[in-house]
DNA sequence: TCCTAATAAGGGGTAAAAAT
DNA sequence: ATTTTTACCCCTTATTAGGA
């Protein structure tokens, strides 16, 4: 009833899902690169060339387009993530500079109002080198800044993404570094780090991940 | 050798591509919500309940998991984008504050060294509003950033990034505003602040970011 | 009638359990 | 210890429903 046997060596009658040969795939990919949406006649030509039904060629291009699109979503993610990381880095730099400026302002004000003071030697208190102390909690404590909160918040989220997007992990120990400052309850959701399933999907672990909770 | 148990491999006589009924789908979805990877016996039970081959149930769950995973990527994207936006907004706030601080420092220094100065008359002179370059070079020029390497070639071809780009661009205006004060690095980079020792700020631009260390 | 989105199913590859 | 079975992943082919 269905498929005509025109160009089919393989019985296409039943849903024989034989993969196309490597050459066929190669040619199709080549055509796809030059034109992802060929017209009917082009498809017909391709079909004749490769010994496929025009219908198969059509379907192949459709599927190929869909595949391309879905792959692009992943690429979008990593690009956006790169931008996020970059921005986070800049954020940190800016924050440190901000701290420096605050200290400088204090120093200058001290100079202005008092002859000299040793308030400026408190500069590099917590923002020392190594990675863990990154999220130094509010170095601007000198002058109460309303922005103090966003450090942990942002960084934590960033790490969450690191966690659940990395395909191979094995490094579950770095959670400590933000746990240090997450002593308060505001980060209760971090319990999920232990259940983030590194291998593609959740295993027998039936705990839903945090991002699944609001679908 | 053949598999008699539940999930018999018996090829469906014909490729019944009929979609499952809405009821079947509904039940399956319900089961999936409670358990995305049912065991054989569960699948058998479901199959019996819904009048499907165990094989079909198995396949359905597999496909459903795959679907879930790919949707997850999209959700990750929007979550990440939300975080990006949030961080960007905080970045802007911080930047404005930074500018205020710079002006204040200038004012204080002016007070100290000269009787008076009008350094605070910086107006948004150059609000360039041209379009597409997301990786506009500016916002962080005040401190040389190694992350500037991501250039627009990765960005183009992304329709998803349209909003993203436009946001970046819209935040650009204030950057220019800020740049006025920091056109030369004499003020912007805290390097010149004599009292505070800010070398830790920008000496190691090429150090990988802390979150890159364990990706 | 073209398309896209969703989806059922085939088939290869693989890891771990079960059987030899 | 090896082979076989089983279950699952990934990717693919094909079908169906619906939109412009």
Automatic annotation (TrEMBL), chains A, B:
Residues 11-71 form the Homeobox domain. Residues 120-138 have a biased composition (Polar residues). It is found in: Nucleus. One of its GO terms (molecular function) is sequence-specific DNA binding. GO terms for biological process: positive regulation of DNA-templated transcription. CDD domains: homeodomain (cd00086). Residues 13-72 bind DNA. GO terms for cellular component: nucleus. Keywords: DNA-binding, Homeobox, Nucleus, Transcription, Transcription regulation. Residues 1-20, 112-138 are annotated as: Disordered. Its main location: nucleus. Pfam families: HALZ (PF02183), Homeodomain (PF00046). It comes from the Eukaryota. Belongs to the HD-ZIP homeobox family. Class I subfamily. Transcription factor. This is Homeobox-leucine zipper protein. It comes from Spinacia oleracea (Spinach).
């Amino acid at each position: 009833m269905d498929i005509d046997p025109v160009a089919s060596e393989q019985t296409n009658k039943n849903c024989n899902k034989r993969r196309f040969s490597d050459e066929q795939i190669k040619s199709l990919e080549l055509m796809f690169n030059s034109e992802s949406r060929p017209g009917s006649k082009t498809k017909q030509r391709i079909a004749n060339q490769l010994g496929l039904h025009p219908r198969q060629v059509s379907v192949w291009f459709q599927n190929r387009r869909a595949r391309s699109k879905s792959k692009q979503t992943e690429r979008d993610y990593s690009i956006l993530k790169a931008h996020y990381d970059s921005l986070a880095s800049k954020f940190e730099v800016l924050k440190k500079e901000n701290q420096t400026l605050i200290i400088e302002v204090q120093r200058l004000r001290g100079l202005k109002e008092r002859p000299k003071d040793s308030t400026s030697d408190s500069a590099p208190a917590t923002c020392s080198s190594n990675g863990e102390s990154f999220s130094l909690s509010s170095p601007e404590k000198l002058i109460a800044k309303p922005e103090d909160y966003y450090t942990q918040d942002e960084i934590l989220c960033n790490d969450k993404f690191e966690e659940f997007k990395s395909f191979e992990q094995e490094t579950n120990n770095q959670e400590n570094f933000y746990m240090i400052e997450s002593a308060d309850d505001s980060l209760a959701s971090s319990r999920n780090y232990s259940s983030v399933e590194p291998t593609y999907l959740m295993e027998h672990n039936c705990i839903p991940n945090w991002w699944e909770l609001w679908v």
